[in-house]
Design goal:
single chain; about 210 residues; alpha/beta; 5-stranded mixed sheet; 5 helices
Amino acid sequence: MALPQGALFWPSREALLVADLHLEKASWFARLGQMLPPYDSIATLSDLAALVASTGAREVWCLGDSFHDKYGCDRLPAQARDLLTGLTGATRWTWIAGNHDPGLTDHCGGAVVEEAEVDGLILRHEADPDDPRPELSGHFHPKLRITHRGRQVSRRCFVATATKLILPAFGALTGGLDAHHPEIVRAVGAGAQALVPVQDRLLRFPIAA
């Protein structure tokens, strides 16, 4: 089930899947002299905690780039750390390593894997265009941009083909790549659709190859 919040819920496993949290992105920029409000991790984890509560999820899978860098967990403020350790302690939590957070050492609870196969689905950070197996991934932060009634509208979206599904970025401080971008099309192949969940409907928009 694709959720409007940008997560995927798997009812038979009571599992919640999210991608690209990019926790502590603001503090990473602050170390470089670009001062951003330091509340991105708290906002992201509060939203995630609300989803875990509302869905009753017993498993959580984070599909990579959960921290903006591999030392992000060390920089978590106390409130965010408490939120995260509460979540990892209450669920079966798995971190899949991404290109931003390889080699996590202190991951605030949960298990760390490079990728996983769960009930026939491959869970990894970046889609592999050469792998024919059914696959769930993140990495690209897809967004759909359309003109509606003369206005430019941008919404985070899922990108799907018959065997691949890219999740949008869940993090509060993440940008987005146009769903029609050639790198996304290359990753998933022909016949892709952008999926936008809204309330009780799933809107579908074809993506041109």
